[in-house]
Amino acid sequence: MNSVPTTGVAILGSGNIGTDLLIKVLRTSKTLEAVAMVGIDPASDGLARARHLGITTINNGLPGLLAHADFARVDIVLDATSASAHKEHDLALASSGRRLIDLTPAAVGPYVVPVVNLHQHVNARNINLVTCGGQATIPIVAAIRQIAPVHYAEIVASIASKSAGPGTRANIDEFTQTTARGLETVGGASRAKAVIVLNPADPPVIMRDTVFTLSDDADEEEISRAVAAMIREVQSYVKGYRLKQELQFERFTTKPLLIPGVGEFRGLKTTVMLEVEGAAHYLPAYAGNLDIMTSAAIVIAERVAARARRLA
């Protein structure tokens, strides 16, 4: 019998991300209890799986959860719906005392990447996970920022087209804008840009991310060590997160590099190439872009719950 206290969570959204969250809570978490899965499509695979697993299912959205007796057992709400829906959910739950972990690009609450700044926001009522591209690349920019000021960061996130559901496709603009802001506010870059590529290759390829930074000149070995250490930290909850090849460095000290919209740059250009393979709990292994989000959400929920128990 499990003697570890558990914290009740409800999952909003019965699509791919919501269903993967449910499976992760059931399979991998010793401190979270799946109380309910909430959707708006009674025929969705996510709700069907939840019913089969004995989890309370609600098919009329958040209003149905608020009216359900099991809501009293919910301490944390994981929102895997859409940016526009999350804003409504945030308002509806504002006075409920429940904590929200937002997997959409709504950015109502502070941006959080577990290995970078969760300690600063563990008490926040609403925590935003930026984007999948942000979860994968912000740690790298933050690692380089530990060694030298990063004046500019640019990331390209390439994901399998089959892993991009309707929510992702409807929020492409929010993805690029939110990721760029996260690279600045969490990663520490003075300026940033983000690009997403939906790769139609068949068979589908796993998520790949390329990170470019322009920083003050610094020791290449120090940067390599900082990046390697950060990758190990992310791997503590995303096993398939890894370096694709050795870091590449290029110096612009005597002859500056001209960057459109940025101007002349003198210093060190660092290129980091990553890949993210999913754990295949529910989603296919190539959907590392979704797995890194759900894995980060579970880690955050566990630490938020642990903090709340210590303060109780």
List the helices and strands and how they pair.
Elements: E1 7-12, H1 16-28, E2 32-38, H2 45-52, E3 56-58, H3 61-67, E4 76-79, H4 83-93, E5 99-102, H5 114-121, E6 126-128, H6 132-145, E7 150-160, H7 166-170, H8 172-185, E8 191-199, E9 207-215, H9 220-235, E10 240-243, E11 248-259, E12 263-277, H10 288-311
Parallel strand pairs: 1-2, 1-4, 2-3, 4-5, 5-6, 7-8
Antiparallel strand pairs: 7-9, 9-12, 10-12, 11-12
Helix pairs in contact: 1-2, 1-10, 6-8, 6-9, 6-10
Structural write-up:
The model has no long low-confidence stretch (mean pLDDT 94). With 312 residues, this protein is α/β, with parallel strands linked by helices. It has 2 domains: 7-129 and 291-311, 3-Layer(aba) Sandwich (Rossmann fold), CATH 3.40.50.720; 132-285, Dihydrodipicolinate Reductase, domain 2, CATH 3.30.360. Helix content is 38%, strand content 28%. Helix 6 runs parallel beside helix 8, helix 6 runs antiparallel to helix 9 and helix 6 crosses helix 10. The strands form 2 sheets. It has a 6-stranded parallel sheet with strand order 3-2-1-4-5-6, sandwiched between helices. Strands 7, 8, 9, 10, 11 and 12 form a 6-stranded mixed sheet that branches. The chain has helices at residues 16-28, 45-52, 61-67, 83-93, 114-121, 132-145, 166-170, 172-185, 220-235, 288-311, and strands spanning 7-12, 32-38, 56-58, 76-79, 99-102, 126-128, 150-160, 191-199, 207-215, 240-243, 248-259, 263-277. The longest helix is centred in the last third of the chain and has 24 residues, at 288-311.
